[in-house]
Design brief:
This protein is of the alpha/beta class. Helix content is 16%, strand content 41%. The chain is built from two helices and seven strands, in the order βαβββαβββ. Strands 1, 2, 3, 4, 5, 6 and 7 form a seven-stranded mixed sheet that branches.
């Protein structure tokens, strides 16, 4: 069971606890804006893409469903182009016990607005969710 309000915090903490990400900036996703300087190091922005909830148990009140977390991987132009794939596979390892049911990865694209390469990966999980309150205590 995963507490819905802590999905993103738990996802981020798993990544941040992995030494592989020591030299990669990990942050919550915010709306895109022009950055006043050119990106010097790889960065990963993480956010919740969606939550879909079903009460799918017979004669029980079990709230299970899927939730998707996206990661936008920003890579300076002069970087090794295999880095985004390495990041995605490492994240898979870090959050595997969330019950991954699908991963969608976009192709890496040059973005003149952000002045770097960007690749998006969406991780979808299936798990029991709780939202707090009397039923979940």
């Amino acid at each position: 069971m995963i507490h819905a309000e802590s999905i993103l915090n738990e996802f981020l903490s798993r990544i941040l606890d992995d030494g592989f990400f020591a030299n990669i900036q990990i942050t919550r996703a915010y709306p895109n804006a022009v950055k006043p300087t050119v990106l010097k190091n790889t960065a990963v922005a993480v956010g919740i893409k969606s939550i879909e909830l079903d009460e799918n148990a017979v004669y029980e009140h079990v709230k299970a469903g899927t939730f998707s977390v996206f990661t936008d991987i920003f890579l300076p132009y002069e970087s090794d182009k295999t880095v985004p794939e390495s990041i995605v596979f490492r994240i898979c390892r870090d959050v595997a016990d969330f019950n991954i049911v699908s991963i969608r990865i976009s192709e890496i694209k040059a973005d003149s607005f952000a002045q770097c390469y960007i690749m998006r990966a969406v991780f979808t999980f299936n798990n029991e969710l709780c939202f707090g309150g009397k039923e979940d205590e």
